[in-house]
Amino acid sequence: MSTATLAPPAAARDARPGLARLTAVELRKMTDTRAGFWLLLSTVGLAIAAVLILGFVGDAQDHRLRDMLAVAVAPVVVLLPVVGILLVSSEWSQRTSLLTFALVPHRSRVIAAKLAAGVVLSLGALQICIAIALLGTAIADPGASDTWSLPAWMLGQTTVFVVTAMIMGIGFGAMLLSSAPAIVLYFALPLAWTAVGSLAFLADAARWLDSTRSLAPMTDELMSSTQWARAGATLALWMLLPLLVGLWRVTRGDVR
User: Fold this and answer.
1) How many angstroms from the chain centroid is the CA of residue 182?
2) pLDDT (tens digit, 9 = 90+) per residue, 56-82?
3) How far apart are CA 99 and CA 150, in angstroms?
4) What is the domain count for the chain?
5) Does 12 reside within a domain?
6) Quick check: is 2 in a domain?
7) Which terminus of the chain has fewer Cβ atoms in its 10 Å neighbourhood, N or C?
8) What is the pTM of this model?
């Protein structure tokens, strides 16, 4: 007597995992590793500390919700991109890329899922920052007429600021495919350009390509069209270019 086995239909066997499922997998990779967990925890802790310091030390005019949010976001745009770097580079440094691309042969879909996961995590971090800023404003409570005002333009610009920082980190991780060099260059190259841009003959170029100058107004003021143009040029250099190079390397490189 033989036992019959039921094979899954060919369509179900060959079906590709959806982008939502891949994004969920990449989100788990960002949060369930020891490095990712402590980076995220440190980011939240620093955001809380920054808001508390501003609340107890700063002037009353700096205790508005919009000021608290700007301070809370500062640690996020510095540390959160490191999680994005590790999301891509750890696939290669830990030799898990072979398994990943065996399960999902279309490598561009993997990168798209990593980008989507980065955006989702960034938006989640922004929500936490808003909650921290609300709590800090309630504790400080300067009593000004515009204490609780949070203009739509500032919320939108802050969202762009946080999300693009994460995408920038993912781009550097994909471009270098190695954690340590990617993290070092992510911080060192913009700082080096800031130093070089302080030279008189590069002052004009620095206004367009220095991230510390062109992106900083996103959390301070309603940006003009010229400021947006400068921010776009900066993001093209520090975010789009590394991302395109990284996409080419990931889709064309040998997997070992």
Assistant:
1) 14
2) 887 777 788 999 999 999 999 999 999
3) 46
4) 1
5) no
6) no
7) N
8) 0.89
